[in-house]
Amino acid sequence: MQAAVLTGPGTLVMRELEKPSCGETDILIKVKACGICGSDVRNYHAGLRGNVEEQIMGHEIAGIVEEVGRAWSDSFYVGQRLAIAPDVSCGTCYYCLRGLVNLCAAHRMIGTHWPGGFAEYIQLNETILARGMVHPIPEGVGFDEATLAEPAASVLASQHDANIGLGDTVVVIGDGPIGCLHLEVARARGASKVIMVGLDRLAFAERFEPDHLIDAASQDPVSEVMRITNGFGADAAIAANPVAETQAQGVEMVRKRGQVILFGGLPKQKPMTTINSNLIHYNELIIRGSFSYPAAMHKLGLELIATGKIRAAKYITKTVSLAEIPQAIADLKEGRALKIVVHP
Ligand SMILES: [Zn+2]
Ligand SMILES: [Zn+2]
Are 96 and 163 part of one and the same domain? Predict the structure, then answer.
């Protein structure tokens, strides 16, 4: 089978590999679509996490079951359409025992610890099937659209934990696919106003019709949010980007007891941020981290795509072949595309 293998920072090699086997406790998937994630863009340049030197990346996967091992004959069938998210928890650590599987101390990922979806086939082993996230694609949802369920899952978990809801005014800082998902999920949860702060992809963000779109290049996001909210501040600000300054802005633009959600990680060489701590103190602000999601959120993501609450097709700028991944990564990095899906 053809696969795109990351062999080191900035080096993606096309390889002809043996098609993975399907043992008694595995299933084999023919990959139909695999989204390129922001983390793929980052790992392509910086190398994989966890000292993994060489791997097939890709973790926003949709495909068809090609073979089913005997142990799974009651659960899956040949020809079944499945969406696959990457996170696999251990089930026995402190966090897993408390249901916080996204914080698992022995957390592993498809595309890092096991070969990912930038290949014609992917084997799902017993561990992945027992502790991972594999769900049938609802009728009417295409393979490309189904790949969006993965990034949607993390957004859904984040807003669930923050209890974004009816009547809220929410600021989303960041106009990438994650920012647009935050906008749609906030609306689905009942937010009455979503203000988007655009950095470099305003034209894409506009398609999702935010109530207000602030151009951070020419406007001051904090004073604009205060103007729009009549000096009151927003109920929540979500920093959905890798820029430290936006976290500081979030603290300045929420109301008393408002929430600032740190959704995007900062570059690992530069993780420090400076925020006005007095605002946290006097205004009793809540600063909330957000990482990954439990399996239910991946399933919910598929349902929201099926019902049109998440308009998945709107995100996908283009589809590419395995060999075109490096160019696609450059396009994403330069803001020339919102979401690119690979057809291996
Ligand atoms: Zn992803
Ligand atoms: Zn665990």
Answer: no
